[in-house]
Structure formats: structure tokens, C-alpha cells
Write a structure and sequence with these properties.
253 residues; mainly alpha; 10 helices; 77% helix; 0% strand; disordered N terminus; translocation; Sec-independent protein translocase protein TatC; proton motive force dependent protein transmembrane transporter activity; transmembrane; protein transport
């Protein structure tokens, strides 16, 4: 991939890019940043009237597990406003992510060779899809399992009541962890395509990578075996998926 600000001109487009002053690069970057901020702000404002409903949807897995005598609580006066507000911002960011990445691709596109352009866009589309898939997996499968485990092991004399801010932080961390974890096939493909690590080397180091998946999951998830396994096994399977596609690409080239 050719650097955007330090190119080796091989055609007229790259020559023009190489001769462009740094302040013009910043002007172009500002144009794309303004677009991103405008879309993000617009989505945020459109979703703001539904912020409380969005939080109700997020808290549904927890409320389904709580005893009838328990409920969610707010230990801070501002929590009832800030928690839905933060969630609304997160949702707006997630919805606008394809647009944000597309703007980033448009910015670096002039610095790419044709074969790099053909490769970058599919990888970016796959990355977005996998990230959303990771969040959906965390919400529909992992989160209910974790909540059921922790509430079921609570002593009978303790009534579980979760603070809405704490629950939001817990969920957002879980979503980001699984969203980033599902990027493993893309990372594996990039390592193979760029020639940093050949597939043979990854195959030989498979057992160390599997151990590494469980090691990372141990620190990235809550302190229970269920969530660790539910993160480590997908990490391993996603690595194998990236390895399969990497082998196919190597054979083609």
C-alpha cells in the first residue's frame, strides 16, 4: 500500500499526490471529517427522542433474568439522563460506521494502486459485516448467558439490583470486545496478503494461537468460565476461517 503523504510516484495520479503540499492534504482531510461529524450528529439527533426506548431494549436481557421483586436502579442523580444519552451516541456511531470507513477509504484511495483498491474495499465491507455480527452475537447469545449465570449464583439473601450506568458500561465493553474479536479473519488475511506471516507459519503455530485465544479471553471477559469459553472458541474458529481464505488467496497468486 502506498503511503498517502510519502508516495513513490508510478503514474500521473501518484505524481500529483506526491507534489501536493501538506496543507492541501489537511484541507481534503477536513472535508471528509466534516462529513463524518455531520452524519454522526444528524443520526444522534434523530435517535435522541428514542434514547429511553433504546436503553429499554438494551436492558431487556437483564430484566428478563431479574427476580420479580428486583429492578434496575440509578445510584447517581444524572444517571437516568446520561446512561441513555451515552447509549444513543454509541448507537449513532455504530450505525454510521460504514459511512465513516467509506470516507476514510475515499481519503486514502488516491494513494492506492489499482490492485490495492480492488482488495481494500472488499476487506472493508467484510470488516464492517463481521463487527456487526460480533455485536449481535454478544447481545443475543453471550449477554443472556452471562447474566443468567451471575444472577443464578447470587445468594438467596441478596436481591440483584444493577445500576444502569454500570450495566451500560458492562454491555458496551462486551460489545466492543466481541466486535473486535470478529475482526480476526480480516487481520489474518491482511497478515497473509502482505506477506508478513505465511499460512505455513500460522499452521505450525496453531496450538500456540489457540492457547493465546484462551489467554486473551481470560482477561477480556468477566471472571467466569462461560464468557471466557464463549469468546475463546469463536476467536479460534474465526482464525481458522481467515486461514482458509488466506490459503485460497495464496493459491490464486
Amino acid at each position: 500500500m502506498t503511503s498517502l503523504h510519502n508516495t513513490q510516484p508510478q503514474d500521473s495520479a501518484h505524481t500529483e499526490l506526491d507534489e501536493m503540499p501538506i496543507h492541501k492534504h489537511l484541507i481534503v482531510l477536513r472535508k471528509y471529517l466534516i462529513r463524518v461529524v455531520a452524519v454522526l450528529l444528524g443520526l444522534f439527533l434523530c435517535l435522541l427522542p428514542f434514547a429511553n426506548q433504546t436503553y429499554q431494549l438494551l436492558s431487556k436481557p437483564l430484566r428478563a433474568q431479574l427476580p420479580t421483586s428486583s429492578s434496575m436502579i440509578a445510584t447517581d442523580v444524572t444517571a437516568t439522563f446520561l446512561a441513555p444519552f451515552k447509549l444513543n451516541l454509541f448507537v449513532a456511531l455504530m450505525i454510521s460506521m460504514p459511512f465513516i470507513l467509506y470516507q476514510a477509504w475515499l481519503y486514502v484511495k488516491p494513494a492506492l494502486h489499482q490492485h490495492e483498491k480492488n482488495l481494500t474495499f472488499p476487506l472493508m465491507a467484510g470488516s464492517i459485516t463481521l463487527f456487526y455480527t460480533g455485536i449481535a452475537f454478544a447481545y443475543f447469545i453471550v449477554l443472556p448467558s452471562i447474566l443468567h449465570f451471575f444472577i443464578s449464583v447470587a445468594p438467596e439473601s441478596v436481591a440483584p439490583m444493577t445500576d444502569i450506568n454500570s450495566y451500560l458500561s458492562f454491555c458496551l465493553k462486551l460489545f466492543l470486545v466481541f466486535g473486535l474479536t470478529f475482526e480476526i479473519p480480516i487481520i489474518t488475511l491482511l497478515l497473509i496478503i502482505t506477506g508478513i506471516v505465511p499460512t505455513e507459519s500460522l499452521v505450525k503455530k496453531r496450538r500456540f494461537i489457540i492457547v493465546g485465544c484462551f489467554f486473551i479471553a481470560m482477561f477480556a471477559t468477566p471472571p467466569d468460565a462461560i464468557s471466557m469459553i464463549m469468546l475463546a472458541i469463536p476467536m479460534w474458529l474465526l482464525f481458522e476461517l481467515g486461514l482458509i481464505f488466506g490459503k485460497i488467496i495464496e493459491k490464486k497468486h
